[in-house]
Specification:
The complex is a heterodimer. Chain A is an all-alpha fold. In chain A, about 70% of the residues lie in helices and about 0% in strands. In chain A, a hairpin with a 5-residue loop joins strand 1 and strand 2. Chain B is about 30% helix and about 15% strand. The radius of gyration of chain B is 26 Å and the shape is elongated. The chains are: A mainly alpha, B alpha/beta. At the A-B interface, helix 1, helix 9, helix 18, helix 19 and helix 21 of A face helix 1, helix 2, helix 3 and helix 4 of B.
C-alpha cells in the first residue's frame, strides 16, 4: 500500500486511527497497530509477510538467548548467528543476481540470473532488527520479552517500507507506555500532510521536469528510454538539479509522513533529514541526509575494530562502499557511495581548521556541485548513460548549449522548480521557532491558520492523486 | 486579573488545538465516508473506460495484484472523479508559465491502412513530396473499424431494437463525446478567451484521390440521382497559420480539397472550403471541440443549396441560441486548463418556421422513436454537447419537411460533421435522411431506391475523407446484404 494513495489516506489510516483511539490499554493499542501493520504489509506483499514475521521471531529468540547467556561466549555466538541470518537474508533477496552477474563477468561463466523479487522494505526492517539485536548484545537495551511487541516494532507501518530506520532504543520506552496528546495528533497530521505535499506536488512534478530535460520517453511497450545524449548543456544541468531536489522531496516527504503518523500514535521518531542542502561540507551533508542510515553505519560499522590500526581509512571505505551497495545492487550505486566517501576522506585529510578558513561561498559552491553531480551518478544506473550525462554537462556530446525545447520545458515547470528551491531552505522551522516565542493567543491563531493551510494542501493533493493515479510514481526509496 | 489573563490565553490556545484536531478529524472522516459510501463514478466524459472492480481469486490475492487493482479501482472510480480531474487541470496550469503555443500528441498511434491499391499502383503510393518529413505522422491516425458492429463507439446510448421497449429519452445517458475523427497532434494557440485547439492536418495526395474515386464509383451505381461531395475542412485550414511549429501545414487542407475537386467525376463538388473561408472571423468552428459550429454548418448548407439549386432559408429565419459553458472534446484529449478555464458558447440555429419531428432508426434501419432533430444533452456531459444534433452519430434519421414540396429527396451520408446540417435543410428538400458512413448497416442503394431519393450528399470532414478505413465504407455501403 502506498502512502500517497486515496485508499490508504482515507480508508486505511482513518480506520486505524479510530480503532487505535477506541481502545484504552497500551496492550490493546499495540495490538491494533500490529494488526494494522500486518494488513498494510500484506496488502503489497501477501506472501512475503511470512519472511517479515520469521525475521522478527528468529531475532526475538536470538536477543533473548543473548540476554540469558550474557557474559559467556555463547552470547557472541548468538549475535553472530543473528547477523549471518539477517545479512544472509538481505544478500539472498537483494544481491544474488548482482553477485552472479559479477561471477559471470569475472570468470566468463553463464550462471543464469535468479530474478528474485525484492521484498518490500527488506533493507529497512533488516537494519532495524540488526540494530536491536546488537544493542541487546551491547546491553544498551534489554531484550523484548513480548514477541507481538517486537513484531509491532519491526512492522510498524509508518516506517516499515522506506524508513526512517528507527532504532529500538528510540521507541523502547514508548512501546511500553505512551500517551497521545491533542497536540501530538495535530502535529502528526500536519507533518503527514506536509510530507504528502512534498511527494505529490513537488517530487512528482520535478520528475516531469527531469524527464523533459533528460528527454525521457516511454515507449509503447512501457519501457523508458533516456535521451540524455540529445540534452542541451543547460538542460542537463537543470535536469540534475531538479533530480537532486526530487530525491530530497520524495524521500524526506516519506520520512515526514512516517514521523507524522508515528506522532499521531504517540511515537517520537528521530528526524531523518535536516535541510541537507544547507550544508557547508560533504561531511555535513551526510549528517543532514538520511540521518538514520548514516548513524546506523557510524554506530555499527565505522567504529568496529575490524581493520586494526588502519581502521580509520579502511572503515571509511567500508562505510561508503556499503552505503552505496545498500542503495542498490549495482556498481553505479557503489561508485556513488565511494564518490561521496572520497570527498569525505579529502575533507578529513584537509582538517576542520582548514575547512573553516575557506570562505562560505566557496564551500557552498564546492559542496553543491559535488552533491548535484553525485545525484547524476545516482540517476544513471547504466554506466554508458552515466558517461553520456557527464559529457552532456560540458557539451562534449556535440550538444547545443541551450535550445527552444529546454526553455519551453523549463518554463512549463518554473514555479514548481522555484518553490522547490525555496523549500530546501529551513523556512518552516524558522516560522515554528517564531511561533514558539509568541503568546498563547498568537500561537492559537497561528495554529488555526496552519491547519487551514495544510487542509488546503491536502485538498490539492487529493485532486492530483485522483488525476494521476495510473502514473503516480511510488516513492523512490521503495526500491531500496 | 493579571493571573487570569495567561489562563484565558491558555484556554484560547487549547481551543485552537481542539479546533485543529476537529478540522483534521472532519476532513479525514468526511473523505472516508466519501471514498467508501458515496456512489462510485461509472462513466467519465474524459475516459472511455474506468478501472473495474477486481474479481477476487486466491491466485491474484497471493500475487498481490488483487489488492493493487482494488487500490486503483477506489481511486479511479471515486465519486465526482471528473470534478477532481478538472481541479487538477487548474492546479497544473500554475506549475509554470503557459506557452502561447502548446502541442499535444493524443492519438493512439495505430497505423492507418493505406488505400487498397497503393501497393499495386506506384503512382499513388508516394506521399506528396511537398509534405515535410513529419507528415509521415498521417500513418498514425487512429484506426476506425470497418465493421459497424465492432466499432469503438461503445459509449453511445444503448437503444433497444424494439420500438415498444425502447428507452429513448430526450437526454442520452452518455452522449458520444466524439474523437473518432480526431487526429494525432493537437495544437493550442492563443490565450484567454481566444485560445483555440485544433488538430494538425496532413495532406496525402493518394488518399484524397482515393476518396474521390470511391465517391465516383458510388455515383456510377445510381441512375438519375445527383451525387454531391462536401468535404468539410478541419479548422486548422483557417487558423493554424499562426503556429510556429505547424504553420507550414496551413495549406494542406486546400491541397486535399483541390485534389478531391479535380478528381470527382459524375459527382458535383460543393465548395465548402471557399464558403467557410469567407466567414473565418465568425464562430464557424468551436474553439474547444473538434467539430464545427451550427453557424459553420449553416454557411456550408447554404453553399450546398446553391449548388443543388434548391431554396434555402436565410439566417433571419433561424434563432441563434447560445448555451454557455461549453468545453468540448479538445479538453478531453489535452486536459489543458487553458481550455477548461475558457469555455465557449455552444451554438444552435433553431428554425423559426414550422418543422416536423424526425423518425429515428438504429443503424440496421429498425425504427426506434420519433424525436426533434435536436436533443437535449445534460449539463454534466458538456464535452458532448455536439450530440445535440441528431442525438448520436449512428442513428439513421428521416425528416419530412413541413415547408418544402419540391419533389427533391435528399440522403446525407455523413460523419459527425454532417449532424449539424440536420436542422438546416428543411426548407430545401421535402424529405431528408441522415445516415452515418461509419456505422450504417443497410444497403445504401436499397435505401435510396426505397425512399425515392433524388440527391445524395456526402458531408464528411477532411480527415474522414482521407482516412482509408472511413472512406472505404463508401464501397461497403453499396454491397451490404448483397
Amino acid at each position: 500500500m502506498l502512502f500517497a494513495d486515496i485508499l490508504f489516506l482515507f480508508v486505511f489510516l482513518p480506520l486505524c486511527v479510530i480503532s487505535y483511539f477506541s481502545v484504552k490499554s497500551i496492550r490493546a493499542k499495540n495490538t491494533v497497530l500490529l494488526i494494522s501493520s500486518l494488513v498494510f504489509y500484506a496488502w503489497g506483499e501477501p506472501v512475503r509477510i511470512i519472511l517479515l514475521i520469521l525475521s522478527a521471531a528468529l531475532n526475538y529468540a536470538f536477543a533473548i538467548m543473548i540476554d540469558l547467556s550474557r557474559g559467556s561466549k555463547q552470547a557472541k555466538v548468538y549475535l553472530i548467528l543473528s547477523l549471518i541470518f539477517n545479512i544472509g537474508m538481505l544478500g539472498l533477496f537483494k544481491y544474488t543476481d548482482f553477485f552472479l552477474s559479477n561471477i559471470n563477468a569475472i570468470f566468463g561463466t553463464s550462471i543464469p540470473m535468479q530474478n528474485i523479487a525484492l521484498p518490500l522494505g527488506i533493507s529497512f526492517y533488516t537494519f532495524q532488527i540488526m540494530s536491536y539485536v546488537i544493542d541487546v548484545y551491547w546491553e544498551k537495551v534489554p531484550a523484548q520479552r513480548s514477541l507481538p511487541d517486537l513484531l509491532m516494532y519491526v512492522s510498524l507501518f509508518p516506517q516499515l517500507v522506506a524508513g526512517p530506520i528507527v532504532r529500538y532504543e528510540t521507541i523502547a520506552a514508548e512501546i511500553k507506555e505512551r500517551k497521545t496528546t491533542i497536540n501530538d495528533f495535530c502535529e502528526g497530521a500536519t507533518r503527514l500532510i506536509i510530507g504528502l505535499t512534498k511527494k505529490v506536488l513537488l517530487a512528482n512534478n520535478l520528475n516531469l521536469l527531469v524527464e523533459a530535460m533528460f528527454n525521457v520517453e516511454t515507449t509503447s511497450a512501457g519501457t523508458t528510454v533516456i535521451g540524455i545524449g540529445s540534452s542541451t548543456v543547460v538542460g542537463a544541468w537543470i535536469g540534475v538539479i531538479a533530480y537532486s531536489m526530487q530525491v530530497y522531496f520524495d524521500f524526506s516527504g516519506y520520512s515526514d509522513m512516517a514521523i507524522g503518523m508515528g506522532r499521531m500514535f504517540g511515537f517520537h521518531f528521530n528526524e531523518n533529514f535536516r535541510h541537507p542542502f544547507m550544508c557547508r561540507s560533504i561531511s555535513e551533508f551526510w549528517q543532514r541526509w538520511h540521518i538514520s542510515l548514516g548513524s546506523f553505519f557510524r554506530d555499527y560499522l565505522l567504529y568496529l575494530p575490524i581493520f586494526g590500526k588502519r581502521r580509520k581509512y579502511l572503515s571509511l571505505f567500508l562505510v561508503w562502499f556499503t552505503t552505496g551497495l545498500w542503495h542498490g545492487a549495482s556498481w553505479s550505486f557503489i561508485i556513488w557511495g565511494l564518490y561521496f566517501g572520497m570527498f569525505i576522506l579529502l575533507e578529513t585529510l584537509a582538517g576542520k581548521k582548514f575547512l573553516k578558513s575557506v570562505p562560505d561561498v566557496v564551500m557552498h559552491i564546492y559542496n553543491k556541485i559535488v552533491i548535484i553531480l553525485g545525484f547524476g551518478i545516482f540517476y544513471f544506473t547504466n554506466m554508458t548513460e552515466m558517461g553520456t550525462f557527464f559529457k552532456a554537462l560540458v557539451g562534449a556530446n556535440g550538444n547545443d548549449f541551450i535550445s527552444d525545447n529546454t526553455v519551453v520545458g523549463f518554463q512549463s515547470y518554473i514555479w514548481i522548480f522555484l518553490v522547490s528551491l525555496v523549500a530546501c531552505f529551513p523556512i518552516v522551522p524558522a516560522i515554528k521557532q517564531r511561533i514558539e516565542n509568541m503568546s498563547y493567543a498568537a500561537k492559537g491563531a497561528s495554529r488555526i491558520i496552519q491547519t487551514a493551510l495544510v487542509c488546503g494542501m491536502l485538498y490539492i493533493c487529493v485532486n492530483l492523486l485522483v488525476d494521476s493515479f495510473l502514473t503516480n510514481n511510488p516513492f523512490l526509496y521503495f526500491r531500496f | 486579573m493579571n493571573n487570569k489573563k495567561p489562563n484565558n490565553q491558555k484556554i484560547f490556545h487549547n481551543i485552537s488545538l481542539a479546533v485543529s484536531a476537529l478540522a483534521f478529524a472532519v476532513f479525514f472522516g468526511y473523505m472516508m465516508i466519501y471514498t467508501l459510501l458515496f456512489s462510485r463514478t461509472t462513466e467519465s466524459v474524459y475516459d472511455k473506460q474506468l478501472t473495474s472492480a477486481p474479481e477476487f481469486s486466491f491466485s491474484k490475492f497471493f500475487l498481490g495484484s488483487y489488492t493493487t487493482e482494488l487500490s486503483k479501482y477506489f481511486t479511479d472510480t471515486v465519486h465526482n472523479r471528473d470534478g477532481f480531474k478538472e481541479n487538477a487541470s487548474i492546479i497544473k496550469s500554475y506549475y509554470g508559465i503557459p506557452e502561447e503555443e502548446e502541442d499535444f500528441v493524443v492519438g493512439p498511434g495505430t497505423d492507418i491502412t493505406p488505400p487498397d491499391d497503393t501497393s499495386t499502383d506506384p503512382s499513388v503510393s508516394e506521399p506528396d513530396t511537398s509534405t515535410p518529413p513529419e507528415t509521415s505522422d498521417v500513418t498514425s491516425q487512429p484506426d476506425v473499424s470497418d465493421d459497424p458492429d465492432t466499432s469503438d463507439i461503445t459509449s453511445e446510448p444503448d437503444v433497444s431494437d424494439d420500438p415498444d421497449t425502447s428507452d429513448v429519452t430526450s437526454e442520452p445517458d452518455n452522449p458520444n463525446i466524439g474523437g473518432e475523427e480526431i487526429l494525432e497532434n493537437i495544437v493550442l494557440l492563443g490565450s484567454g478567451s481566444k485560445v483555440r485547439a485544433m488538430e494538425v492536418f496532413y495532406h496525402v495526395e493518394s488518399a484524397a484521390r482515393k476518396y474521390a474515386e470511391r465517391v465516383n464509383a458510388f455515383a456510377s451505381k445510381l441512375d438519375g440521382v445527383n451525387v454531391y461531395s462536401m468535404v468539410v475542412p478541419k479548422q486548422c485550414a483557417y487558423y493554424i497559420k499562426d503556429s510556429k511549429k505547424y504553420g507550414y501545414t496551413a495549406d494542406n487542407s486546400l491541397k486535399t480539397d483541390t485534389v478531391i475537386k479535380n478528381n470527382l467525376n459524375g459527382v458535383t463538388y460543393v465548395d465548402v472550403y471557399g464558403a467557410l473561408e469567407k466567414h473565418i472571423s465568425e464562430e464557424i468552428y468551436a474553439r474547444t471541440d473538434h467539430h464545427w459550429t451550427a453557424l459553420g454548418a449553416f454557411y456550408a448548407a447554404e453553399e450546398f443549396a446553391k449548388t443543388a439549386g434548391v431554396p434555402f432559408a436565410s439566417i433571419d429565419q433561424y434563432e441563434l441560441n447560445r448555451r454557455a459553458g461549453y468545453v468540448g472534446t479538445m479538453y478531453t484529449y489535452t486536459k489543458s486548463a487553458k481550455l477548461l478555464n475558457n469555455p465557449e458558447d455552444f451554438l444552435t440555429l433553431v428554425p423559426k418556421f414550422q418543422t416536423n419531428k424526425a423518425l429515428f432508426y438504429d443503424k440496421n434501419y429498425k425504427f426506434i422513436t420519433e424525436h426533434d432533430v435536436m436533443w437535449t444533452i445534460a449539463d454534466k456531459y458538456k464535452s458532448g454537447w455536439y450530440s445535440t444534433f441528431l442525438g448520436n452519430d449512428d442513428y439513421i434519421a428521416k425528416i419530412s419537411s413541413a415547408s418544402c414540396n419540391n419533389g427533391r429527396r435528399l440522403l446525407v451520408i455523413k460523419d459527425s460533421y454532417g449532424n449539424a446540417l440536420s436542422p438546416l435543410l428543411d426548407y430545401s428538400f421535402e424529405q431528408i435522411i441522415f445516415c452515418d458512413l461509419r456505422y450504417t448497416n443497410v444497403n445504401i442503394v436499397d435505401l435510396i431506391n426505397d425512399n425515392q431519393i433524388t440527391d445524395v450528399l456526402f458531408a464528411i470532414c477532411s480527415y474522414s475523407a482521407v482516412n482509408n478505413n472511413i472512406s472505404g465504407r463508401i464501397d461497403t455501403l453499396t454491397t451490404i446484404g448483397k
